[in-house]
């Protein structure tokens, strides 16, 4: 198993798509900091009452949100690139047990997703706070240490998206099809759910993957398009199900069809 994981790690780090997707996720943090500069200037021009209506946290949460899409695409490409190039046969020759091959891919993709997600989440939390300096934004009164656990949960959710992308790539064997499905689950479907009549908008919105991390961390849905009705243990279980159920189905299909 260790050799299979090492081989999958070597394959993932050797392709350009890995560097590109990670660069986009990391580069977006710089974009957030530039936006934070403008938001700080806006804050300076507001009255004391108006400043109470200008939060910073929605900007901070955009980092892991975008990283979720980037790492989901990485998960898709980690397997569909082998189908496109024909090297999936070589992988199966090296690791004939297909379940082990899927497990090795999942370990590597989850590890990369978790590392990248936590890096982006913490940078998204700390970067804008450094930019605003001593300005007392309404949702930044607490210490950094108070906020970091919540952002750690946001970073962990990126790994869930990465595993979901891997599972969809295995199921569809098509980069275009799997990435389209990822985008639908990432943002298009939550937008459609948001327009459902009450109370179904909040009920269904509460189980949308992109909003589950905020429910687990306690940040809440706020004015977002997601719901906020699930208890923390249920939200954790639903989040894990988004990764593990599709991955189990993908592994089952992969072991019972031709490469």
* Contiguous helical run count: 11
Quote the distance from N terminus to C terminus: 20 Å
Rg over CA atoms, rounded to whole Å, is 20 Å
Beta-strand content: under 5%
The overall strand count is: 0
Sheet with the most strands, sense and barrel status: none
The figure for the number of domains is 1
User: What is the approximate shape?
Assistant: globular
Q: Average pLDDT across residues?
A: 87
**Unreliable runs:** none
Helix content: over 70%
Q: Based on helices, strands and strand pairing, what is the structural class?
A: mainly alpha
Helix and strand succession? HHHHHHHHHHH
What does this structure look like?
This protein has 259 residues and is an all-alpha fold. It has one domain. Helix content is 79%, strand content 0%. The protein has eleven helices and no strands. The protein has helices spanning 2-14, 16-44, 48-51, 57-85, 88-94, 98-132, 144-172, 175-194, 200-205, 209-217, 232-254. Helix 6 runs antiparallel to helix 11. It is globular and about 65 Å long. The model has no long low-confidence stretch (mean pLDDT 87).
């Amino acid at each position: 198993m260790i050799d299979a994981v090492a081989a999958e790690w070597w394959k993932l780090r050797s392709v350009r798509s890995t560097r590109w997707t990670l660069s986009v996720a990391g580069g977006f943090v710089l974009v957030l900091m530039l936006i934070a500069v403008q938001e700080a200037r806006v804050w300076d021009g507001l009255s004391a009452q108006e400043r109470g209506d200008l939060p910073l946290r929605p900007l901070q949460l955009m980092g892991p949100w975008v990283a979720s899409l980037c790492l989901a695409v990485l998960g898709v490409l980690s397997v569909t690139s082998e189908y496109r190039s024909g090297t999936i046969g070589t992988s199966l020759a090296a690791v004939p047990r297909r379940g082990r091959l899927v497990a090795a891919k999942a370990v590597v993709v989850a590890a990369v997703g978790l590392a990248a997600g936590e890096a982006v989440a913490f940078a998204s939390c700390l970067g804008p706070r450094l930019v605003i300096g001593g300005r007392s934004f309404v949702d930044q009164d607490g210490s950094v240490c108070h906020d970091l656990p919540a952002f750690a949960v946001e970073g962990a959710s990126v790994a869930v998206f990465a595993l979901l992308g891997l599972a969809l790539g295995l199921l569809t064997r098509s980069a275009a099809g799997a990435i389209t499905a990822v985008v639908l689950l990432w943002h298009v479907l939550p937008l459609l759910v948001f327009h459902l009549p009450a109370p179904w908008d909040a009920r269904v919105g509460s189980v949308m993957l992109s909003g589950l991390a905020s429910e687990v961390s306690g940040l809440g849905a706020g004015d977002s398009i997601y719901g906020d009705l699930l208890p923390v243990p249920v939200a954790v279980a639903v989040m894990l199900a988004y990764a593990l159920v599709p991955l189990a189905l993908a592994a089952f299909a992969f072991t019972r069809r031709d490469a």
